[in-house]
Structures are given as structure tokens and as C-alpha cells.
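Reading is simple: the C-alpha cell line describes the chain's fold. The lines below illustrate.

. . .
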Amino acid sequence: MTASDLQGQHCKPIAGDTTPLSASRIQELQTQLHADWTSDAAGVEISRTFRFANYYQTMAFVNALAWIAHAEDHHPDIEVSYNRCLVRYCTHAIGGLSGNDFICAAKIDALLPVAE
């Protein structure tokens, strides 16, 4: 599976009794994302900081990210400042990571040019 495979998928509803992804599966899926995505030591979330030249570019990115979140019905935690946006994914219903987190991260990666 490649990043484009993840980008072509859609999020599925997650039941509260679903088991979070294993550490090995997280590692496998993370290789399909931009190298700047990191997972925390507990394997509960993935995050990436995006940097921009100005506030306008940052907000344009946030709006595009919000559109993806709405379309996929899977919403990240975001922190926004003048020229930076921190995006964190965790499937809160299961207290860990699901495939949905990686699908959305791949879709966000597709928003930006390859040569960042």
C-alpha cells in the first residue's frame, strides 16, 4: 500500500470497542506519509507541524484541512499561529490510532507540493 492508496480510501465509522492499531501497523502506515509525521511513544497520536510564509497561507491550509475533515467525518486537533499549524490525529473513541488517522494524514499531505 502506498500514500496514494491511503489518499484514495475513505474513513469508516469506528465503534468504541475497536482495538487501536498495533505498534507495527502504525510503523507500516507511517512510512506511507510524509517523513515529518511523527507518532508519540504511546502510539496514541500522530502529528505534524506545517510552516507557511504568512497568516494568509496558514489559514488557506487550515480551511482546506477543515474541508477534508468534514468530507471524511474525521477531525484532527489543530493549533494555529501566524505561520504555523500543528495537526494531531487520534481516534478518541478508541483512545488510540485507527486507519482513519492515516487516511486523513495522507490526504493532508496531498495538499502541499512535494518539494516543501
Remarks:
- DSSP finds four helices and four strands in the chain.
